Amino acid sequence: MRQQKFWLGVRYVVLVILALIFMLPFWVIVRNAFSTNANIVSATWQWFPDQLNLTNLRSLLENDSVGILRALGNSAIMAVLQTGGTILVSLLAGYALARYTHRASKLMLGLTLFTLMVPVATIFVPMFIITAQLGWVDTFRGLVVPTIFSAFATYLFRQYFLDFPEELEDASLVDGCNPWTSFWRIVVPNSKGIIAAVGTIVLIGAWNAFLWPSLVGRDATRTVQVALSQFMTSQGVRYPELFMGSLIVVAPMLVVFLFLQRYLVQGLTTSGLR
Amino acid sequence: MLGLGGGLAAAATLTACGQNNPLDGGSSATPGAGESSSMGSEAPMGDKPSLTQWYHQYGEEGVKEATERYAAEYEAATVTVKWNPGDYNSILAAQLLTDDVPDVFEAEQGGSLDQIRSGQLEDLTELIGDAKDDFNPAVMKRFTFEDKIHGIPQTIDMQLLYYRPSLLEAAGVEPPTTMEELIAATNAVKTDSMGGFFAGNDGGIGVLGTMFIWSAGYEQLNEDRTEAAFLNEDFYNGLVAFRDFSKSGGVVQAASAEWFSPDAFINEEVAFQWGGLWSLPAIKEAFGDDVGVLPFPAIGGNGRPSVPFGAFGACVAAEGKNVDASKEFVKWLWIDQEDKQVDFSDAYGTHIPAKPALVAQATQLADGPGADAAQFVSDSGFANDIMWSGAIGEKYGAALSNVIKNDADPAAEFEPLKALIASELEKLKG
Amino acid sequence: MSNATSSTIAPASPSTGRPGLWRRLRGHQGRNLWFAAFVAPFLLGLMAFVYLPIVWSAYLSFFEARNTVNPTRFVGLDNYTYLLNDGLFIQSLLTFVAFALFIVPTTYVASLGLALLLNNLRWGQAFFRSVFFIPTAVSYVIAAIVWRFAFFSGARFGLLNQAITAAGGDQVNWLGGTNDLYWVALVSVRLWLQTGFYMILLIAGLQRIPQETYEAAALDGAAGWRLLRFITLPQLKATSVAVILLLLINAFQAFDEFYNMLGSIGSYPPYARPPLVHLYLIAVGGGQQDLGVGGAGTMILTAIIVLFGVGQNFILNRSNT
Fold first, then answer.
1. Residue B2 falls within a domain, yes or no?
2. Does C240 reside within a domain?
3. Under CATH, what is the fold of the domain A63-271?
4. Same domain, B152 and B167
5. pTM tops 0.90
6. What CATH number is given to the structural domain containing B339?
7. What DSSP state is assigned to residue B4?
8. What is the rounded CA–CA span in Å between residue B144 and residue B195?
């Protein structure tokens, strides 16, 4: 009917407008990354960049105080290590919390949920002290290890495994596996979706992390978000370089996201929040 | 709990040492080569000790290389310079809590009360000996606590008010010496495209903070340091005057850069900018001779012009592994090596050498705004009292912000500070 | 699991007929051991890097501990009373409440709105879903850079100020604190970053509503607004509650965008200070390192959030009976 078509049309118009608004920040980053400073701070808003070459990129790369290339490398290493570590630890724990329901398990679940709520930023100082006393400041150990114990990831895995059919594992146990081998040979290969989902969340979270890397990272381990944040308030800040830096920092995550969002959506949808 | 930490630390140090041998990794002046040398837990006998030296990230070009040069020239030890971008105070504070402290490090104003009290700083009074009279007395006053000195001044920084004489001449006003004159001058020279007075994107509250105390003619604390000495009518009236100045549009609330950058002034976004002496070279380059500087104007009947000054002091970690070697190095660089001290102050941005006798050697301070600036520090220089703790500063800043930005009544807003400061001071004396 | 090959039967202890202590500890077919093996890494890590620091913070909170982790002066509850009397701390709690009051309903409504717009959309659902979801990949730091310098800059060149001056108004100092408009910036940045995520959760919830429910409602003549209010929302209750809970917990832990939008190196204005920023400034970054008060603050904030969790659980359980 015409009325339905009308409302459908309205729906699309609204969606398009919202989509444009949502994309605006990305456009601003791109515009500024390829502009001169004058273009950015000009008296009238310029919609388009005015320096469509790599000048800003070059001056950013040459800017030693930012050290963007090194920072990109550090972030990549940290993100990969953190993702691997978290998945490993949380996969095991989440599975156990789902499969075993005795008292110890309930206690652990409670501990896990409690951790979800504790304001992490405040315990960073004593956490940092411990990390430092282990000699881990400015090392990837210190950057990564304290962060791989994620209650959130464990919880997501647990929710997923609650729905995972036990028959598969039971069958393997009959065939002579113990719970450990059964887990690795049967459960994990059939859980690729949730692993990809949680992995994506952790990866993006690690790449975007700010507080912990700013406390523990130094020259050798400065990550990309910390470098940008320091650049932003430093004496030598220049907007074109700042936004070019933002562009090259956000780009990898956008790529990761576009490739993996399917799993993310699936994981969030099926594991639900019960 | 700390026993556990100690045990773990011991075990970890052994493993860490295996991977980060402080003795390989080459030249002392290699910048930022990981943290290899900071694990220097065992200086082998008969070899040169290995020292780490921490600096914050200076904005000026060439400073890092200079400090590395100085360190390389020191023969009695291998000194590695560590350059720390970001929030230096936090980074330093956090590191000083661990077992792995930097041997030599710069600390604001020669060390905070908390640092001194908690025993993090080595007592350098004997090291400096009579040479302390060579240093700027106002700076040494700030650096001395209970007759002890814990840091050796490196160079003096200050802030001041930049303006362009040509603009004032064109508008027919004299350089302002009082707050009223400043307000009048600002209104006279500002235009639609060029704002009046700028002191930061927070409306000036952060950087001007305690200027309102000194320019009103008062000190922060009384002689005995038992209570605040500025909570009076003159101070409140000064705040109201500045608030009116802000609200009337004379104070530029936001610009394309911060107060510590010369950009807003150079881009002619503002006519008067409160900035750092370090910005002087860039400003001179932009405007040549058309640059003037002033202290913060006097406020009220009891007022006086004032400028804040600060100096980083070279400190030695009391819990460092090589205290004696560190002390020797610090003495060598910051007491003996006067040519390096002049170089540090003069060759990278503009700073004032910590020893008045060396000021004559600083080319940038020979004449013009540079010379004026040096004079301001001598005549009207102020620094935060050592017992003006971080907590007091926070409360003061919050009250100030409420008065200037939210129209709060100064007396009402600052009244609670009286008791707060008194009790905080008591705690600190404890 | 019940058909596993039996393991050796340990001898019963001589006095009673019950299995020995080790056997009991091991559990049926060693399941306790397996459980331990699976959770050990996670548990050890939690202990070392979450609970140990919390306990340490609690310990420090009873001492005067400035610039030291080996404090010597026991001061009992002084740090707690100091903090509870600290105007800035109380203000930070109120800031959190204000922030939560803004962000939670706004995000929920926005996410729900987007979810409803996208639900059962024939063309382009995946495309629009991506568009709204992709900001999740952006860090708070980068979003803060864009918001602080490009959108909400108090100077002339900020996008919003450009729009305002073009319409004839005066430029606005968004982040300066002379007004309360920084809330617009802070809420909008979080909205942009989070809405997509919660939209996904709500879409999942919407898709769980069986088609029959809608058909029955249509037969009864329910449509549009009434459909939403009386059919859809009640069916979404579980998901909505979870979403709101997550929103609240995340709002409480807000730090990155506040710190990067309003702060400078080593300093932060006294307004718009969420609890975590305030504690961070006390314990780490504001020219002081008061670990005693910082520890007390941790305990207080943790207590608040635990109480909240317990309370919320209680309410939910009661409403479900």
1. no
2. yes
3. MetI-like fold (1.10.3720)
4. no
5. no
6. 3.40.190.10
7. H
8. 41
**pLDDT: which is higher, C112 or A128:** C112
Chain C residue closest to B205 (CA)?
A: C269
Instruction: Look at residue B7 and tell me if it is in a domain.
Output: no
In this complex, the residue of A15, A169, A261 whose CB is nearest that of residue C117 is A15
Checking if the pLDDT of C179 tops 90, the result is no
Give all chains having 3 or more CB-to-CB distances under 8 Å with chain B.
A, C
Q: Chain A, 113-152: which have a CB under 8 Å from a chain B CB?
A: 125, 128-130, 132-139
Residue type present at position C117? L
Strands B381-382 and B307-316: parallel
| A65 contact residues in B (CB cutoff 8 A) | 57, 85
Length of chain B: 430
Q: Are residues B165 and B277 in the same domain?
A: yes
Looking at the domain assignment, is residue C46 inside a domain?
no
C143 has pLDDT over 70:
yes
Pairwise pLDDT comparison (C312 vs C278), residue with the higher score: C278
The verdict on B369 and B413 lying in the same domain is no
Number of domains forming the structure of chain B: 2
Q: At a CB cut-off of 8 Å and minimum separation 6, what does A107 contact?
A: none
What pLDDT sits at residue B45? 53
Q: Does some domain include residue B1? A: no
Residue B53 has phi, psi (to 5 degrees) of -125, 125
- Give yes or no: residues B294 and B209 share one domain: yes
User: Choosing among B8, B56, B121, B253, which should be mutated to test the C contact, i.e. which has the most C CBs within 10 A?
Assistant: B253
Token digits of residue C200:
């996904």
Give contacts of C88 with chain B, Cβ < 8 Å: 394-395, 398
Is the domain of B317 the same as that of B278? no
Domain identity same for B89 and B145: yes
User: pLDDT above 90 covers what percent of chain B?
Assistant: 55
- Residue C27 counted as domain residue: no
Contact criterion met (CB below 8 Å) for A272 and C204: yes
B94 touches chain C (CB under 8 A): yes
Reported as a single tens digit per residue, the pLDDT across B115-163 is 998 889 999 999 999 999 999 888 898 999 999 999 999 999 999 999 9
The CATH number linked to C227 is 1.10.3720.10
B 332-351 residues with CB < 8 A to C: none
Residues B360 and B299 in one domain: no
State the chains in contact with C (3 or more Cβ–Cβ pairs under 8 Å).
A, B
Burial class from Cβ neighbours inside 10 Å (0-12, 13-18, 19+) for residue B347 reads middle
The domain of B199 spans 158-308+384-429
Which residue range is the domain that position C288 belongs to? Answer: 80-315
Residue B98 and residue A137: Cβ atoms within 8 Å?
yes
Query: Which of B357, B379, B401 is at the close of a domain?
Result: B379
Look at residue B28 in the predicted model and tell me its pLDDT: 30
Q: In this structure, what token pair is assigned to residue C227? A: 């459909």
- The partner residue sitting opposite A96, judged by closest CB among C39, C201, C252, is C39
Domain range annotation of chain A: 1-53, 63-271
Q: What pLDDT, in 10s, does the model give residues B341-352?
A: 999 998 888 899
ipTM at complex level? 0.90
Nearest neighbour of C269 by CB, restricted to B202, B389, B393: B202
In a domain, C244, yes or no: yes
Residue A86's pLDDT is what? Answer: 95
Q: What is the average pLDDT across A17-45?
A: 91
User: At a CB cut-off of 8 Å and minimum separation 6, what does A98 contact?
Assistant: A157, A158, A159, A160, A161, A162, A164
Cβ-Cβ contacts under 8 Å, C70 against chain B: 2
| CA B242 remoteness from chain centre | 24
Q: Is A1 on the interface with C (CB under 8 A)?
A: no
Mean pLDDT of the residues in chain A: 87
Mean pLDDT of chain B: 84
The arithmetic mean of pLDDT across residues B40-64, rounded, is 77
Tokens representing A256 are 């990761």
* HSE-up (13 A, CA, CB side) for residue A26: 18
Residues 353-412 of B with CB under 8 A from C: 389-391, 393-395, 397-398, 401-402, 405-406
Residues B127 and B116 in one domain: yes
Which residue's structure tokens are 């936090």? B90
Cβ-Cβ contacts under 8 Å, A142 against chain C: none
CB A124 within 8 A of CB C277: no
